[in-house]
C-alpha cells in the first residue's frame, strides 16, 4: 500500500507539471494517461515492485528496468527516449546523484580488448541490420543535409582522406579500422599502402575477406592488434570512432603513441565523440551509467578542450577542428529507424535483451547529440614544430569545387559481393577512375 500511495502521489505531481503522450498500465489492469493526446509510449508495470523504477526515473533506472524485463515499454525508440528524459528532468535534481559524474576506469590491454569484443563481436549480420552496406560504424557526413546514409558515409570517408591530403603510395595506419571501408577506399582511389588494426575478431575476419575480394591484398593489411603494439612510422594516421575507448587519463599517452608512429612530415586525423561537460562528466540523468553497464564497458568521453590539451602534451600540433554534432544526431536517428525496421531479424540474431539494449542506446545517442550533451569532432594534426613547405595555406583542399550538385555527390555503389565501390570526382566535375596499382610486396611498418 505504501508503494501504491507513493506512486499515486508521483503521478499526480507529474501530471500537474507536464503533459506527455504517455500511458502507464498498472498491474491491476488500471491505466493512467498523462495528457489528452493519444499515448505514443506505454509503460506497463507488471507488479507493484516495478513501481520503484518510476519513482526515480533516471535513464539508468528505467533503461535497466526495460532491458532486464522488469517493466514493459511500447513505442518508437525516439519517443521513448524523449519521454523518459522529460520524466527525469521533471523529477530529478540536475545536481543530484544522477548529474554528470566522472568515473575512474582501468584501461589495460586486456580490459580494452574485452570491452571491444563485448560491443563489436555480437555478429556481423547484427550490425548489417542498421548500418549502411559498407558497414561504416561512425558519424556520417551530410554535406547537403539530405543524403541517404550510404552516400553520407562515403562522403565522410572522402572528407577524411582529403583532410589528411593522402597521396599515392603513402603509408596509412587506420586505428580501429572497423570492417575496412576506409582502408579499402584509400587503396582503391589513392593506391595508399594501408594497415588497418582492430581488436574485434569479427571485424578482423570480415575486413580481411573484403580486402581479398576487392583484390587489394597487395595494398591493405588488416591486423588484430592493439595500437600500443604497432611499430614503425606512417605518412598518414586516421582514428575514427576509436579514441572513446582510450580513457580520459590516457589520452596524452595515446597521442604520444600516434606521434611516435607518425612520419616527420605526416598528418593525423582523429574523429571521435566528446562530452560537452567541461569537467569530462558523463551525460546527465544516468545515461552514461547505462551505456557503461550495457553498451560500451570502459568507454569514457573527454571534453574537446581536454582533447586538444592532450594532443599538445603528445607533441602534436592541431591544424584543423570541425564539429559534426548535428551529423551524428542524424546518423544515429537513421540507424534507429533501420534497427526498428528490422526488429524481427535483430531479435532473432541477438535475443530480446540485447535488442532492448540497442533499441535504447541508438535512440538515446541521437537524443544526446541533439541536446548537445555530447558532440563529435574531427581534429587534424601534425608533429609539433614541423616546418614544411607542403603545408596548405587554406582549407580549400577539403572541399572540391564542382559546378553542380549532381557532380558534387560522391558516387557510392555496391559490387555484386557487397563491397563498397567509389568513383573519385575531379574539380572539373569528371570522374577519375584509378588505374590498377602496381603490386607491392612489402609496405607496412611492422
From TrEMBL:
One of its GO terms (biological process) is methylation. Pfam families: CMAS, DUF7884. CDD domains: AdoMet_MTases. Keywords: Lipid metabolism, Methyltransferase, S-adenosyl-L-methionine, Transferase. GO terms for molecular function: cyclopropane-fatty-acyl-phospholipid synthase activity. This is Cyclopropane-fatty-acyl-phospholipid synthase. The keyword Disulfide bond does not apply. Gene3D superfamilies: Vaccinia Virus protein VP39. It comes from the Bacteria. Its EC number is 2.1.1.79. Belongs to the CFA/CMAS family. InterPro entries: CFA/CMAS, CMAS, DUF7884, SAM-dependent_MTases_sf. It comes from Duganella violaceipulchra. Residues 15-93 form the DUF7884 domain.
